[in-house]
């Protein structure tokens, strides 16, 4: 007998055919097809669940083959398919099982079907693989409002599965579930609560509109963390497809996320490379993948090890991370906005107007060298912050909602320009230049400043992307000279000749 299920290799799903055959010999149950420990232990779970159902299999030899045999099976998700195949072999289920039905779920000893990590990406993969119906356990964390196009039958026990296959009424179906309402986004942060830092707020608005990376450098207590933690309030909410991607990654990592707001990840600076990038014996998503479609905030960025920081090169450049292990090689999406924060020197007060810096130029140089040149090149905006004088009069403060509306309008212009949901910070540079070419004078201006400041080709590309986003926020059709000047100013904040001689 053959029953279908879904296997996962990272976010990629593939068809698993569960073959069950009864053979003469000593009573036993053998599972083959490169099962890991969790799949091998399915034998005891399935035997106990079938015994609770009223089917005793301890007097025959059964061989269960998980095909394709060359791929390692690493999840208890195949328990239900194994049990259905055995019931067919034993004659307890006479109805033929069509090949377009997939079975997902882990079995308890009493026959209850339980969800496991990775259930949501497996259901989404089933649709892509051509399955017309999926039997799976009910999980209240599923975004049912986005799964209406998938014929998913939710079952709680093995007995319910058999009843459904025999033609009895479906107890829980996707069509019978009420459409869930996305809860309103709740946050106690708002840009109107942040006094001063007008230039930094505008820079973060540009970063949100075009998905540009930002590095903030300033003394302790100047507001770096506050700005970074408030930044998600001006980001647009996730689209349906993006939310499904994010929830799938969170399920694979064993974490929960219940709304459509962009994820915000804030790992400690002592985090290991495995925690940041992902990995383990069975590779799991790391912080860069959990920040997919959202924000990765690295506070005290210079305190992370140089090896760990350099691992950010691939996800920052390609929007994905590849993890290679002996058991498998998986690729996870890692399309995020990097917000970094660091002190200007070891003591933190280099350039401060309030306190004296006690660090030598050599110490400052060594401290800033912890972030390598390639990482600096992959950052679009360099911000220099100072503590705000609260006694002075400041401008009228804007609410995050007002800024977010401008960001959404700029994003919409980009989506229309490129014909897909992609921003200036991610679109291929050839497409960007074809849609928004620089004038000859602008090209000469950029080349002049690039030669003066020793900017690499990657940095020049970043400046063009920034200029296009600034022009979008200003509702300009082409890249203006003003937008190009502002973009170059964002890159030159921490690269003046004087500060470079001091160790930058």
Automatic annotation (TrEMBL):
Listed Pfam families: ChlI (PF13541), Mg_chelatase (PF01078), Mg_chelatase_C (PF13335)
Keyword set includes Nucleotide-binding: yes
This protein's UniProt keywords: ATP-binding, Nucleotide-binding
Domain AAA+ ATPase: 210-380
Annotated GO MF terms: ATP binding; DNA binding
Family according to the record: Belongs to the Mg-chelatase subunits D/I family. ComM subfamily.
PANTHER family: COMPETENCE PROTEIN COMM, MAGNESIUM-CHELATASE SUBUNIT CHLI
Name of the protein this chain belongs to: Magnesium chelatase family protein
Organism: Anoxybacillus tengchongensis
């Amino acid at each position: 007998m053959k029953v279908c299920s879904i296997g996962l290799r990272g976010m990629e799903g593939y068809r698993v055919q569960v073959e069950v055959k009864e053979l003469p010999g000593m009573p036993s149950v053998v599972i083959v097809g490169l099962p890991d420990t969790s799949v091998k232990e399915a034998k005891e779970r399935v035997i106990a669940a079938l015994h609770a159902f009223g089917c005793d299999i301890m007097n025959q030899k059964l061989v269960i083959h998980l095909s394709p045999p060359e791929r390692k099976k690493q999840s208890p998700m195949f328990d239900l398919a194994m049990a259905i195949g055995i019931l067919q072999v034993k004659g307890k289920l006479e109805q033929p099982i069509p090949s377009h039905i997939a079975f997902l779920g882990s079995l308890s000893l009493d026959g209850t079907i339980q969800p496991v990590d990775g259930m949501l990406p497996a259901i989404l993969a089933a649709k892509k693989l051509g399955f017309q119906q999926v039997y799976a356990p009910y999980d209240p964390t599923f975004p049912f409002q986005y799964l209406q196009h998938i014929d998913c039958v939710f079952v709680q026990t093995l007995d319910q599965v058999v009843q459904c296959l025999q033609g009895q009424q479906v107890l829980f179906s996707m069509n019978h579930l009420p459409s869930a309402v996305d809860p309103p986004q709740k946050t106690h942060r708002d840009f109107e609560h942040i006094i001063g830092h007008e230039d930094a707020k505008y820079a973060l608005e540009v970063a949100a509109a075009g998905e540009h990376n930002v590095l903030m450098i300033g003394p302790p207590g100047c507001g770096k963390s506050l700005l970074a933690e408030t930044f998600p309030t001006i980001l647009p909410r996730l689209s349906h497809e993006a939310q499904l991607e994010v929830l799938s990654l969170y399920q694979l990592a064993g974490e929960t996320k219940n709304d459509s707001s962009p994820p915000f990840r804030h790992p400690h600076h002592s985090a290991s490379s495995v925690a940041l990038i992902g990995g383990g014996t069975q590779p799991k998503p790391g912080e860069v993948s959990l920040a997919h479609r959202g924000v990765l905030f690295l506070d005290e960025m210079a305190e992370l090890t140089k090896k760990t920081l350099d691992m950010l090169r691939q996800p920052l450049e390609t929007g994905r991370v590849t993890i290679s292990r002996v058991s498998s090689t998986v690729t996870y999406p890692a399309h995020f906005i990097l917000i970094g924060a660091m002190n200007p020197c070891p003591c933190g007060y280099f350039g401060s107007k309030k306190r004296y810096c006690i660090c030598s130029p050599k110490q400052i140089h060594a401290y800033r060298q912890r972030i390598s040149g390639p990482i600096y090149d992959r950052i679009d905006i360099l911000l220099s912050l100072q503590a705000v004088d609260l006694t002075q009069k400041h401008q009228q403060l804007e609410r995050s909602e007002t800024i977010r509306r401008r960001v959404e309008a700029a994003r919409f212009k980009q989506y229309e320009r490129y014909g897909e949901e992609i921003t200036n910070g991610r679109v291929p540079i050839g497409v960007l230049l074809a849609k928004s070419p620089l004038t000859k004078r602008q090209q000469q201006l950029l080349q002049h400043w690039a030669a003066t400041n020793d900017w690499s080709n990657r940095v020049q590309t970043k400046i063009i992307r920034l200029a296009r986003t600034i022009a979008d926020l200003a509702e300009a059709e082409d890249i203006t000279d003003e937008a190009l000047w502002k973009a170059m100013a964002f890159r030159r904040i921490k690269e003046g000749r004087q500060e470079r001689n001091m160790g930058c």
